[in-house]
Amino acid sequence: MPVMLAKKHTIVLGNEKGGSGKTTSAMHVIASLLAEGLRVGSIDLDSRQRSLSRYVENRRNWSETNDVPLAMPDHHVVDRSEADVLTEQHREERQAFETVYAHLTAANDVIVIDSPGSDTFLSRLGHAVADTIITPMNDSFVDFDLLAQVNPDTYEVKRPSLYAEMVWDARKRRAIADGGTIDWVVMRNRLSSLDAKNKRRVEAGLEALSDRIGFRIAPGFGERVIFREMFPSGLTLLDLREKGAGGGLSMSHVAARAEVRQLIATLELPDLHPGQQQQAQA
Ligand SMILES: Nc1ncnc2c1ncn2[C@@H]1O[C@H](COP(=O)(O)OP(=O)(O)OP(=O)(O)O)[C@@H](O)[C@H]1O
Ligand SMILES: [Mg+2]
């Protein structure tokens, strides 16, 4: 598969549940990697909503309008095929994805892929090239169900969910394609400070499940207005200093930024700077 030749570490944000925080997290991961001086290639596989692409466009506009230089990702959207026949759709989408992925891997140090909140062929292609999958989930048992159906008392797995099976399938494909492994990290999003009991129960459930279906748990993001309100400017918590932060950072900003840094630390990414990569391969 030509795509694998120039493999760069690829982080995929995925979860078949809509609105769980994939795009918000993708943009924060992108900004974190850019802030480390890395060249980041980003792919939006959600060509219907294009939220990540809008986030990136807003960032470019804000930077130009305010005359503040901001590091930008090398961003592309892969559109869904309009072909009538399914096999033709898949062929077109595979070709479009592989072209963009090969182009980005040649020119960047790391790739971040945002996927739609549904099972699509493009989403599967994205998962199949992942080195790291980040699955944001809301802190509730409704979202827990997307990982696995479990016995409510013992958390014994009754059946892995379709999404867990999709990750399993992606792991098999990676193993066959290039012997690679996929690190799957589940992060809880929109954590409420109010419902401590629910929080503990979901936490216990996730811990019981993590070994069985093979993921690690990241501490996650709190429910914070700041994660919502920066979309129109295309900024993230990592950029607030560049913005001049009119009036300085609030406690909530500082706490949110710490959450983003904690997520990146939990990913335990290899050193992605080009010089170090060459040394590691030598
Ligand atoms: N930690 C958070 N605190 C507050 N609001 C949040 C947080 N994370 C995400 N949101 C908001 O929740 C909504 C859904 O987030 P987002 O678009 O990132 O989810 P998604 O998983 O990409 O959705 P989709 O499946 O539709 O692509 C957005 O309005 C976003 O601003
Ligand atoms: Mg999204």
- N→C terminal distance: 24 Å
Instruction: Find the structural class using helix and strand composition.
Output: alpha/beta
Strand order of the largest sheet: 3-2-4-1-5-8-9
CATH class categorisation: Alpha Beta
Radius of gyration: 19 Å
> Which series of helices and strands comes N to C?
EHEHEHEHEHEEHEHEHHHH
User: How much of the residues is beta strand, in percent?
Assistant: 15-25%
What small molecules accompany the polymer chains? adenosine-5'-triphosphate, magnesium ion
Helix content: 40-55%
Indicate the overall shape. globular
Average pLDDT number:
89
The unreliable regions are 1-5
CATH architecture: 3-Layer(aba) Sandwich
In CATH terms, what is the fold-level topology? Answer: Rossmann fold
Report the biggest beta sheet as strand number plus sense, adding barrel if it closes.
7 strands, parallel
Walkthrough of the structure:
A seven-stranded parallel sheet has the order 3-2-4-1-5-8-9, sandwiched between helices. It has a two-stranded antiparallel ribbon with strand order 6-7. The chain has helices at 22-35, 51-66, 86-107, 121-128, 141-144, 162-178, 196-213, 225-229, 240-243, 251-267, 274-281; strands at residues 9-13, 40-44, 74-77, 110-114, 132-138, 148-150, 157-160, 183-189, 216-218. The chain is an alpha/beta fold. Helix 1 packs across helix 2 (51-66) and helix 3 packs parallel to helix 4 (121-128). Strand 6 and strand 7 form a beta hairpin. It has a single domain, classed as P-loop containing nucleotide triphosphate hydrolases (Rossmann fold, 3-Layer(aba) Sandwich). The protein is built from eleven helices and nine strands. The longest helix has 22 residues, at 86-107. It is globular, with a radius of gyration of 19 Å. The structure holds adenosine-5'-triphosphate and magnesium ion. Adenosine-5'-triphosphate is lined by residues 18-24, 46, 49, 51, 116-117, 189-190, 221, 223-224, 227-228.
